Amino acid sequence: MFIVTPDGVIATDPISERRPVKPYIDAIQAVTRAPIKYVIYSHSHYDHIAGGKPFKDMGAVFVAHKNAKARLAALKPADVVIPDQVVDNKRNITLGGTTLELNYVGKNHSDSMLVMRLPKEKIIFTVDWIPIQSVQFRGMADNYLPDFEEGLKKVIQMDWNTLIPGHPGPGGKQTGTKDDARNQLAYLQDLSAEVKKAVDAGKSYADAQKEIKLEKYQSWAGYGPFLPMNIERYYDFWNRGI
Fold it and tell me: Distance (Å, rounded) from C-alpha 66 to C-alpha 87?
């Protein structure tokens, strides 16, 4: 997502999967020649935020959650620009008459995820953790339970209509609605409940992965390969407290 105003542009994650950033800059400049004033990181994972130096060379100010800056400062990835400014729980950026809210709703897919909301347009941009008609990616690495579900509840309570999730859904669908957030919460709650039953019954990882089907979600993207991995993540939570 990028936001065009009369006084400049607010861009978000400069790259995905470490592809060259130039096509993103070209796409912005095809719409406006206004300067790119800000680049906002969604969270600290490199596959969304690497490669931003061309934005920095153009004079953009980089902003991220404070936990993202701390993580990046510790790891020092060569191709990730360290943020200039940080957000704690909330910050508003107003540029050219447009306000962008940067909200931190707690740990979910990382401990540094920002929910970016355009109040007037009723759009949110938040990456990776609210997929459209999809189960969670692989083994839910760097995910926090049960904080993840609590964060979803907070997002659902916000005033918005359109979700930009950072990855397309089935058929290349680029945007979602609040129902997608509600459905994701329902999926995780159903998954959690079924895995807890398996743990309480003394079943093994393998048995839980074999027996838990959650068939109401079988049409979702990733259901076949990723549901067993999602089950393992929740098994660790209910069996080991991690």
Answer: 6
- 193-236 pLDDT, tens per residue? 999 999 999 999 999 999 999 999 999 999 999 999 999 999 99
Radius of gyration of the chain from Cα atoms?
Answer: 19
In angstroms, what CA-CA distances link 124 with 46, 68, 157, 158?
Answer: 21, 20, 12, 9
Please indicate, yes or no, whether residues 6 and 79 belong to a single structural domain of this protein: yes
Coil/strand/helix, residue 237 = helix
CB 65 within 8 A of CB 42: no
Residue 166 lies in a domain: no
Q: What percent of the chain has pLDDT over 90?
A: 98
Give the DSSP H/E element, type plus range, for residue 124: strand 123-125
Question: Do the Cβ atoms of 39 and 61 come closer than 8 Å?
Answer: yes
157 is a domain residue: no
Q: In CATH, what number is assigned to the domain containing residue 26?
A: 3.60.15.10
Q: What SS3 class is residue 155?
A: helix
**Residues forming beta bridges with residue 102, ordered by sequence position:** 91, 116
- Element (DSSP H or E) covering residue 117: strand 115-118
Which of 195-225 are b and which e, b meaning 16 or more Cβ less than 10 Å from the residue's Cβ?
beebbeeebebeebbeebebeebeebbbbee
pTM of the model: 0.95
